Amino acid sequence: MHSVNAFAQHKILYDTLTRLSGEEQAALDRALLGGDWIKDVNGNLLSGLQALPLPQGAQTTATLDLAFDWPDTATRALALGAAHPQLLVGEVHGASPRGDLWLHQLGLAGDVDGQPLVMYSGVPRTLVTEVQRQLRAAIRSESPAVSAYRAVPPGETVRVLEAQVVTRQRDRRVTKVKAVNVYDLRLEQTGGSTRLHAVRRAGLRENGAPLPVLGGSGMRALVLHALTGVPAAPFAVVDGQPPPTPPASAEQLLGRLTTTPPPPVPRPKPQPTPPPRPRAPASQPEAAPRPPEPEPEAVAPPPPPADPWLTLPERMAVNPQVVEVARKTLERYRPLLLSGAPGVGKTLLATLLAEALCGEGNYTLVTADARWTSSEVLGGLRVVPGNTLRYAFMPGIVTRTAQRHAQSIQATGRPHALEHLT
After folding, report:
1. Element at 377 (helix H, strand E)
2. Is the same domain home to 340 and 216?
3. 127 vs 147, 384, 397, CA distance in Å?
4. Domains contained in the chain, number
5. Which PANTHER family match (predicted)?
6. By residue range, what is the domain housing residue 37?
7. How many whole angstroms separate alpha carbon 308 and alpha carbon 365?
8. Residues 322-358: tens digit of each pLDDT
9. Residues 318 and 230 reside in one and the same domain
10. Which helix (H) or strand (E) holds 161?
């Protein structure tokens, strides 16, 4: 099974090409004639798209070593050194008629908190072609469409939702949910190779048990948009326009998918009416009063959750004094540097510290690259694909983390941490 709205690609920027010698540029141009690489309107070189496998069945994770399909052996090392891998994610929709009912396949993408991404409406033709191929394979869609897309660099996690729903043609309301799957996708660069990591965060099948995680803050907005049937606008922020508000019907449907219905209360059987008791003679003493029934025992409240700082040494062999120093540092919102030899557990300890401070999954893990510029770190103006030359500000990893921190403080009162691996 492959994703219908997420693909991998290599890109050689025009700015990188201009720093090469004339002979090297000419050699790369000649090599393009023998493969699937193309040159876009801005002068960038783009590889063909690579379909991404997703976890299936009982699997929860999948990995893929990203191939670099350069057509010329002589210039392969030069091209590989200049290329940058990226994910292309889009908002896609395909439909297949079944009489009065329509089967829809939806593909949405958000950030790691399930919030909308900034996307662009000028979708590359190669992405449209690949999406059409995947949607036809999934449901034999007769009208596949891509309404927006975005390129995601290595080190950034993107949350992808893929769903199949059935709607009525007369009112376009969802009548049945056949499947909902939520994945986290991330490209990691190690040396000269690139690997995709795909993790399935939630999976729901038709007539399956309710799945409360779909209503959590990290998935709720994505799922509600998918349950609107035929959305009036993309889930992403396109040209400054936020996504539409989901209808009440989507909220009701999400409640049924996430809440277990109470068991039916059995109706009591009718009891026969006993005959009236004969009255006792006047001289007979009255019956003694019944003793009071004992009060039901009070149910003890559930114990409070364990302090994650105190249980951290149980999950990893670490000196408690190190944990205490890290706790005091992080609770003052001060940066913390972990140093040590490879393989001693720095990444695991950083992850456990972030979970103790911010909560499970409420942190951003990033691996910096020596080729990063201020645009990747803070943000900058980038060209918006389309028929005209336009620029838009794209936030960098630090800016996005600051935005997520503000959202987390407002929603939960807890911070959002940034983990930087080197």
Report:
1. helix 374-377
2. no
3. 11, 16, 25
4. 2
5. 5-METHYLCYTOSINE-SPECIFIC RESTRICTION ENZYME B, TYPE IV METHYL-DIRECTED RESTRICTION ENZYME ECOKMCRB SUBUNIT
6. 2-258
7. 19
8. 888 888 888 887 888 888 888 788 888 888 888 888 8
9. no
10. strand 158-168
* Alpha-carbon distances of 421 from 253, 316, 347, rounded to whole Å: 41, 19, 7
**63-95, pLDDT tens digit by residue?**
999 988 888 889 989 989 889 999 999 999 888
Length of the chain: 422
- Is position 289 within any domain? no
- The token pair that represents 79 in the structure block: 């091209």
Distances in whole angstroms, Cα of residue 78 to Cα of each of 20, 38, 187, 343? 10, 17, 22, 32
Residue 198 sits in the same domain as residue 131? yes
- The reply to whether 52 and 180 lie within a common domain is yes
| pLDDT tens for each residue of 119-162 | 988 888 888 888 888 888 888 876 778 889 999 999 899 999 99
106 belongs to a structural domain = yes
The answer to whether residue 287 sits within a structural domain is no
Other CB atoms within a 10 A radius of the CB of residue 313 amount to: 14
**Cα torsion at 267, 272, 276, 277 (round to 10°)?**
-90
pLDDT digits (tens, 9 = 90+) for 213-240: 898 888 999 999 999 877 778 888 888 8
Residue at 149 is within a domain: yes
Cβ atoms of residues 247 and 228 within 8 Å: yes
Contact 112, 222 (CB under 8 A): no
Choose the final residue of a domain: 198, 227, 258.
258
Supply the pLDDT for residue 315: 80
The answer to whether the CB of 421 falls within 8 A of the CB of 365 is yes
Say yes or no: 313 and 207 in one domain.
Answer: no
Residue pointed to by tokens 């140093």: 339
Reading the block at residue 315, the tokens are 């999950």
Are residue 250 and residue 312 in the same domain, yes or no?
no
* β 158-168/237-238 pair status: unpaired
Q: Which of 82-91, 97-106, 403-412 has the lowest mean pLDDT?
A: 403-412
Residue 316: CB atoms within 10 A of its CB come to 12
Structure tokens given for 90: 């889009």
The Cα–Cα gap between 197 and 188 comes to 8
Contact 87, 140 (CB under 8 A): no
